Amino acid sequence: MMSKAPFEIPANATTGLEARGLSFAYKRGTPVVNNVVNNVTLAARPGTMTALIGSNGSGKSTLIRMLAGLLQPQSGSILLGGVPFETWSARLRAREIAYVPQSTATAFPFPVLDIVLSGRTPHTLRFRLESAQDREIAMEALAAAGAAHLATRSFTSLSGGERQMVILARALAQEPKLLLLDEPSSSLDLTHRATLIRTLVRLRQTKRLGVIMVTHDLQLTGAFDQIVALRCGEVVATGSPDQVLRDEFLRDIYGDSNVRSQRAENQVFVWVDL
Amino acid sequence: MTATPMATPHTGARLARALVILTGILFVSIAIGLAVGSQHIDFASLATDALSNTLFFRLRLPRVLLGLVIGASLAVTGGALQALFRNPLADPYTLGVSGGGALGASIAIAFGWSARVGGVPLLFAASFAGAMLAVTVVRIISRTGATVLPGALLLSGIAVNLIAAAAVLTIEYLTDASSALRILRWLTGSLDVVGLAPIGRMMIVLAPAWVALLAFSRQLNLLAMDEDTAATLGVNVRRCEMIVHTLCALIVGVTVSVGGAIGFVGLIVPHVVRMMFGEDLRIVLPGSLLLGAAFLILADALARTALPSGELPVGAVTGLLGGPVFLWLLRRRQQYSAM
To answer: Fewest beta carbons within 10 Å, which of A6, B80, B280, B305?
Structure first.
């Protein structure tokens, strides 16, 4: 693939990331024949937090992997700063978008600090090693992710939740304008879930960080600006948490008539009657 | 936890330290390699004594240099393949790349392709083609969708090696039934060489290939961590994989066509460098180049002097050392999370 010349995005650009009519089907190796993601259109503007919700298999992960550039949509287009995804060089795109996968395993026992420092790659020249400033940024990112105490550990010795915090720190060290997270809270304890959301909210305020987060943890979505709900690969609801987190929508999204929700102290609690 | 990570040296400092220490080790091993052997060389009268002179410049020195070149080549490709496949057990030998190269080379020799193009023997091209075919087959078989299955990777490597060895055996018997020694040389590896010219021809190809492979250290470091993250950090994963594959097949092909399939150098050396200087591929790859050279020179010095009755092929020594290391890594692998 050719690297295209770098171009500046106007400072006042409000476009962020836009997906138009995205569809995707896995061809081989999976029994799924239909589109896993079907004609999805969404926009994530700078400084806004978007939650992607939906039941298991609704296409959330596939969608976010397309937005991260890891899967090619079969149809539709993705625009970043108003420019088609394919036009961006991989390196420049990596300065704009960071991605935190559901889980990460490394075959080799890399030190945590090295993993976080690798987030600086898109900002360093190819044959340059990281600078002292890069190390400071990496340490700050570790602290922001609540994982400063893990810096000297080996990545392979960490628990799933600790790894998740380290990978979040790497994504923060990347200093992206848009952060994509795929169920980051699933293996985090209560405190670290709160740390995660507080960090995202703070970066939204201070750096106009945009966030797209796949989650099953609806309580966390209260702090978000926008919720996009998927069902069978299609968007079935888009709106603010107040608009979407209602019994009638939730029952449709999850296909379960026993879903209930309640609002209290600016938070939404959702549960299913057993 | 009180340890301050800022106290751990920067990558640059670690790299410099690794290069200094390993270069020192390499020089010591060269001195040992030149000093020992089954024939006595009188170093004081190298300039005057014709026999010592011939022994040294036609046999001993070329042999040490060939060990340097082949050891460096196998170790650096081992480090690169381990990162590329995210598998600590990968190396040119276990993945069948050496076997494929040996097959290509023995076909070229059976057909009498002795021509050279620009100083580079056609033999190298045949050996490269065999190595490339092997790595391609292993890769296609072990990859399902986006992931490489570590078990399938090693098993297909072993199968490719066995097939290639059987084919080499068949070719050698068809062409010359008395060539048991040559067969041994292909399948076990040996550093027998006369004069410096063959090493010069190898370096025409190897020097640029080494540099090119080292230039991918950073990408390989990210790939060793995780393929998806490497992609989202700006690595063009497909292109990087293709280039590294090709470079590894080229380097291994050239070394195998001269020294045969010497086993396990590419497995042991990168792990020793990791234990000494950490996981960073930007240190492991240049470090493996230096330590691999030292290792094979020393292994060959041992092969030349261990038995009173005569010389062992160096591949027997590396196999005896490397096989147990492979088994130990296999056992230890349970602590690696990805497998």
So the answer is: A6
Q: Report d(CA B280, CA B278) in Å as an integer.
A: 6
Interface residue B274 vs chain A (CB under 8 A): yes
Handedness of CA A128, A133, A136, A140 (dihedral sign): negative
How many beta-carbon pairs under 8 angstroms link A with B? Answer: 114
Measured between CA atoms, how close is B143 to chain A, in angstroms?
12
Q: Give the mean pLDDT of A236-240.
A: 91
Question: Does A264 contact B at CB distance below 8 Å?
Answer: no
Q: Which residues form the domain of B265?
A: 57-304+312-323
Per residue in B8-64, pLDDT tens? 678 888 999 999 999 999 999 999 999 988 777 777 888 888 888 888 888 899 999
Residue B65: give its domain's CATH number.
1.10.3470.10
Say yes or no to pLDDT of A2 above 50: no
Interface contact A182, partner B, CB < 8 A: no
Q: How many domains does chain B have?
A: 1
Chain A CB within 8 Å of residue B331 CB: no
d(CA A232, CA A55): 9
Most confidently modeled range among A21-30, B105-114, B312-321 = B312-321
Closest-CA distance, B46 to chain A, in angstroms, reads 44
ipTM above 0.90, yes or no: no
Average pLDDT, whole number, for chain B?
87
Decide if A11 touches B, using CB distance below 8 A: no
Task: Provide the 8-state DSSP code for A120.
Answer: G
Asked if residue A193 belongs to a domain, the reply is: yes
- Which residues constitute the domain of residue A229? 17-272
Nearest to A53 by CA among A193, A158, A181: A181
As for how many domains chain A has, the answer is 1
* Cβ-defined contact of A115 to B236 (cutoff 8 Å): no
Measured between CA atoms, the residue of chain B closest to residue A150 is: B1
B240-268 per-position pLDDT tens digit: 999 999 999 999 999 999 998 898 899 99
Chain A touched by B226 (CB under 8 Å)? yes
Best CA proximity match to A3, nearest among A130, A122, A90: A90
Query: Chain A residue closest to B228 (CA)?
Result: A70
Q: Is B234 part of the contact surface with chain A (CB cutoff 8 Å)? A: yes
Nearby residues of B216 by Cβ (< 8 Å), 6 or more positions away:
B80, B240, B243, B244, B247
Secondary structure of chain B: what % helix, strand, coil (to 5)? 75, 0, 25
Which residues does chain A have within 8 Å of residue B236's beta carbon, measured at their own beta carbons? 1, 90
State phi, psi for A238 to the nearest 5 degrees: -135, 135
CATH number at residue A211: 3.40.50.300
